[in-house]
Amino acid sequence: DTFHDLFLAWTLEILPVELLCGLLLFVARRIPWITRRWSPAAVTVGVSLFQVLSLHGISAFWSFGSMFINLLVSEYTLHLARRKPSYASRCRWLIWATNLSLIASNNYYDIQESNSSSWPAWLVYGWFRKQKSLFSPWKTYRYLALRQLSYSLDVLEEVSREKKRKNTSPRKDSHSSLQYWAYILYAPLFMHGPVMLYHNFRSSPAANVKVNALGIREKIENPSQRVVLSRVVHQFTLTLGRLSSGLILLCAMIATTSVLIFALQTFYMPTIVFLKMHCPSLQVQPMNLQGPEYFVYGQMLLMFIFLNSHVIFGSSRAMAILDGVEAPNDTPVSHL
User: Fold this and answer.
1) C-beta neighbour count of 262 within 10 angstroms
2) What angle separates helix 137-164 from helix 177-185, to the nearest 10 degrees?
3) What digits encode the pLDDT tens for the residues 116-149?
4) Which among 6, 165, 277, 289 is placed 20 to 30 Å from 76, CA to CA?
5) HSE toward the beta carbon, residue 334, CA cutoff 13 A
6) Which DSSP letter does residue 276 get?
7) Residue 232: exposed, middle, or buried by beta-carbon count in 10 A (0-12, 13-18, 19+)?
8) 3-class DSSP state for residue 117?
9) H helices of 109-176, where?
10) For residue 173, how many other CB atoms are within 10 A of its CB?
């Protein structure tokens, strides 16, 4: 249905990849072999890169270029702010000017289908996304630009505040490059948001840059220690309680998506009602609708358009909550 082609493309192509990457994050953070070698932030970057390349392919080259440019400008402004705190206001202007220029350049560097017809589609657009224009890097760049601004302005504000307090040793973790990439690329929120401020994301488990070395020491000190059943049950209960809110929200989003798909395949046909009902050549019966019928269909259209956005934003937020990231709620209303 042309009125909901965006929602249908998201359901069939984007949602499965996002669910897969959410599952990969959940599993990878609980495998000792991984947690003893890589930090949670490194796991976040790895899984997020897989998602970006799966859905965007090399057409995301400008997105990655924009991330690098923003990081370089941010490091330069931090260097200026440390030398002279009075330069902080000028650095903000530089950050804004840079990101506005990157937004304007996004239109210029977008890969058009006519310019890439000789290239393999899976390489240019990713091996999961079939719709080349919907959910392209050009359209998802809006969320990336907001995250770039949040990171640059947040770390600049923190460094400036600490310098004004005469603190000569600012926090090292306030502008870690690994945390930057984890924040910018974070898989559940990369495509559709909701956009979190950097200082909120930095305090989440997904941005932790410390490797869990505790498990190695315990294994060396007590190689023959057996896991007690009660301890396993206790740990499982704690994990289930922590994941319950995100799991319930994700199940609600999947159930709502299923209802919308069922309606689009049965009784809800806005294209026929609004565009083809008065076309004599199509021989659609009934040929005309009465005023109350148009009113009901109009209300249904408004509700379905809202629900389309609600499940897209809600599913991303649910997967972030399952990963321990308290993302803001973009549609804080009831399903009805």
Assistant:
1) 11
2) 140
3) 556 677 677 777 777 777 788 888 888 899 999 9
4) 165
5) 1
6) I
7) exposed
8) coil
9) 121-125, 137-164
10) 13
Per the document, the length of the chain is: 336
Q: What is the tens place of the pLDDT at every residue in 248-296?
A: 888 989 998 998 888 888 877 776 666 655 565 666 555 566 677 777 7
Contact between residue 192 and residue 253 where contact means Cβ atoms under 8 Å apart: no
As a whole-number percent, the residues of the chain with pLDDT over 90 amount to 27
Task: Please state, for a pLDDT cut of 70, what percent of the chain lies above it.
Answer: 76
Contact 310, 260 (CB under 8 A): no
The beta strands (E) that lie in 123-235 are given as none
Contact 331, 33 (CB under 8 A): no
Identify residue 70 by its one-letter amino acid code: N
Q: How many CA atoms does the CB half-sphere of 307 hold within 13 Å?
A: 23
Query: What is the rounded CA–CA span in Å between residue 288 and residue 274?
Result: 10
Amino acid at 202: R
Q: Are 21 and 154 in contact (CB under 8 A)?
A: no
Contacts of 149 (CB under 8 A, 6+ apart): 95, 96, 99
For 2, which DSSP code?
A: G
CB 323 within 8 A of CB 188: yes
Q: What is the DSSP letter of 14?
A: I
C-beta separation of 319 from 246 below 8 A: yes
**Tokens in use for 9?**
């493309």
Nearest to 129 by CA among 49, 22, 56: 56
Could you tell me the two tokens for 299? 């209300």
Find where tokens 């931090």 sit: 78
How many angstroms separate the CA atoms of 91 and 80, rounded?
8
Label residues 114-130 b or e (16+ Cβ within 10 Å = b).
eebeeeeeeebbbebbe
Report residue 180's pLDDT band, with 50, 70 and 90 as the boundaries: very high
Is pTM beyond 0.85 here? no
d(CA 187, CA 49): 8
More confident residue, 35 or 167: 35
